Amino acid sequence: MEPFVLRDAHVTLSVPTAADVDRVAEVCADPEIAAWTVVPSPYVRADAEGFLTRMVPAGWAEETIFTWAVRAPGSVDGPVLAMMGITRTTGAPGQEQAGEIGYWTAPDARGAGLTTAAARLAADWALDPEGLGLSRLQWQAYVGNWPSRRVAWKLGFRFEGTLRRYGPQRGVLRDSWMASLLPRDPREPAEPWPAEAPRS
Fold first, then answer.
1. How many Å separate Cα 60 from the centre of its chain?
2. What is the pLDDT of residue 95?
3. Domain boundaries, the chain
4. pLDDT tens for residues 108-146?
5. H helical segments located in the chain
6. Does residue 4 contact residue 40 with C-beta atoms inside 8 Å?
C-alpha cells in the first residue's frame, strides 16, 4: 500500500521520512517516552534512522504497520509533533481483521488534544470498511500510563481489564491495560473516567 495523508481541521497525518530523523531522535530521548513505549533506551540517532528508513517503509509495503507522523494542520512536512500507528494483528484475506493502535507525543505538543484528534482519524480509517476494514481495534498500555488511557477513553475505547505480565518491554513483561473499539461503537467516552485516575 502506498502511504497516504489523513487530515482534518485540527491535525495532519503524513508518512515520516528520513527528513524527520533528528526530530524523532530528539523526541524519543524523552524519559517519558522511554518509560511507556518499547523504543530503545537510550535512544540514539541510528535508532531513528532505522525506524524511518527501514521499519516505516516496510510496514506500509507489507500492509502490516501503518505509521504516520502527526503534524500541524495543513502541513505534510512540518515538525513531528507525535507519532501514530495502526498494526494489523490477526486475520487473513476473507477473515475478520483485528489491529492495534499506538502513539507517542512530543513533550512540547502534549496537553493540546493533538494526539486525541490524530488517534480519532487513524481509528476511523482502521475501522472503516472502505479503509482498513478492521472488526476490532485494540489499545493497550502499561499500567500507570494515564495520558495514553485518557486518549483511548475519549475515543470511546471500552476498558476490558488488566493483563498481568502481558506487555513486553526490553526483556521484561509488564502489567498492561487493554481496551477495544468496534466499528459501530460511538466515538465518545463509553464509561465514567476511573475514580482512581490522577487528576489532570
1. 15
2. 64
3. 6-181
4. 999 999 999 999 999 999 999 999 999 999 999 999 999
5. 21-28, 31-36, 45-50, 56-62, 114-127, 146-154
6. no
